[in-house]
Amino acid sequence: MNRTLTKVAVAAAAAMTLSLAAPVSAQASEAVAAERGSVSTAVSTPVAASATGAVRFTTHAVLTGSTSTFAKTAVSVSAPGAVSWYVRGDVYVNGVARVRDESIASNRYPTGSLYWPRASGYGKAQLRNVRIEAYDAQYNKTISKLPDSNVILVRRGTTYPSASIIPRGKKRTMKAKNWKVYQPNGSTVSVRKITVKRYSKGKWRNVKHIKLNRNGNGKVSWKTKKKYKYRVYLKTTATVQGTFLYWRGKI
Predict the structure, then answer these.
(1) Tell me: the pLDDT tens digits for 157-193?
(2) Which whole-number Å values give the CA distances from 56 to 51, 105, 116, 120, in the listed order?
(3) Cα(227)–Cα(251) distance, rounded to whole angstroms?
């Protein structure tokens, strides 16, 4: 009897031990496995740190009745990684800075016109301190220096000249009026002379020179047995922009 009770007690104790251990085993089976994260392998858009290129004038400049003068420009730019860029620089006339930090071009407008005051004078013009401001997709800005532009001439343009030919038999008389050029301050001065030309044997040939007075007026006469087409020219020089007037028919 006592042995039987002892066995029952041992069995009960063992069952209690298993019962107490069961929750521990259950907790272990509920462990949550870690998940693998995703690290980005994307390559960020590079900033245009090595932009290169050149800016140049495509025309010379001419002083006119306007208070500003201008010349056309064009740029060629390579800006890797840039989504937009702007070219800026300083306008120099005869070695003196006349306009600072002027906008020259952009990726939307690579060609255009650049203006500066007529009072800057005539002579030689150049863009200096030229630079590219480039922006990447995150709007990070880098500035790269470009070479100075080519040098152009700023010349004085003419006002509104006129000329007429009076034919009388074999004699031709040309009268010229108001052949003047603009000065940087807006005033005008007469040019010294203009040239009469006629079309003969496939080319324009000189006939006479007309000396002009302080008002830009003058006249000259010559004789001819035939009728020709005529033009009157003002020659282009380093300081004066040439022009000409012409007659459609033979006179």
Answers:
(1) 999 999 999 999 999 999 999 999 999 999 999 999 9
(2) 17, 11, 16, 20
(3) 5
3-state SS assignment for residue 171 = strand
H-helix or E-strand spanning residue 23? helix 2-29
> Tokens standing for 206?
């000189």
Residue 34 has a CB neighbour count (10 Å cut-off) of 5
pLDDT at residue 140 tops 70: yes
What whole-number distance in Å separates Cα of residue 117 and Cα of residue 187?
15
d(CA 210, CA 232) in angstroms, rounded, equals 9
- Separation of alpha carbons 71 and 88, rounded Å: 15
Across-strand partners of 116?
A: 69
- Name which of 197, 212, 210, 201 is nearest 244 in CA terms: 197
Cβ neighbours of residue 131 closer than 8 Å, sequence gap 6 or more: 87, 88, 89, 143, 144, 145, 146
CA distances from 178 to 42, 163, 186, 189, 236 (A): 71, 9, 15, 10, 17
CA–CA separation, 149 and 237 (whole Å): 22
Terminus-to-terminus CA distance in the chain, angstroms?
158
Structure tokens at 78: 């390579």
Question: How far from the centroid of its chain's Cα atoms is residue 21's Cα?
Answer: 85
CA nearest neighbour of 99 among 73, 80, 119: 119
User: What pTM was computed for the model?
Assistant: 0.76
Residue indicated by tokens 């003419």: 158
Residue with tokens 């019962």: 19
- Look at residue 120 and give its three-state secondary structure: helix
